[in-house]
TrEMBL record:
UniProt cross-references to SUPFAM superfamilies, sorted A to Z: lambda repressor-like DNA-binding domains
InterPro entries reported in the protein's UniProt record: Cro/C1-type_HTH, Lambda_DNA-bd_dom_sf
GO molecular function per UniProt: DNA binding
Protein name: Helix-turn-helix transcriptional regulator
Length: 92
């Protein structure tokens, strides 16, 4: 499904790499973001580092946080572009 104005897919896929950029997009600390995602801040830290598997449970929690923080599809698309550019250049 596409939005009227953006022509971007409404339900984009995202993974653990999106946690930190989404959190920084709204200027939230781990403790602040843990309230939006309803998990412990140490769990978020482990998910961001990739030391904890990003299961469908955490995917749903992140989706809820995106809705609560009102992250738009355009923002998610730009975050995806930044992540892809960093990977091309070899950044973590």
């Amino acid at each position: 499904m596409y939005t009227v104005n953006s022509k971007l897919p409404y339900n984009m896929e995202y993974d653990h790499r999106f946690l930190k950029p989404i959190r920084h997009a709204r200027n939230k600390t781990l403790a602040d973001f843990s309230h939006f995602m309803n998990v412990n801040s140490s769990t978020i830290c482990k998910l961001e580092k990739g030391s904890l598997e990003f299961t469908p449970y955490y995917h749903e929690k992140l989706r809820d946080a995106i809705k609560r923080l009102r992250i738009s599809n355009i923002e998610l698309a730009s975050i995806r572009n930044v992540i892809e550019q960093k990977e091309k250049r070899g950044y973590k």
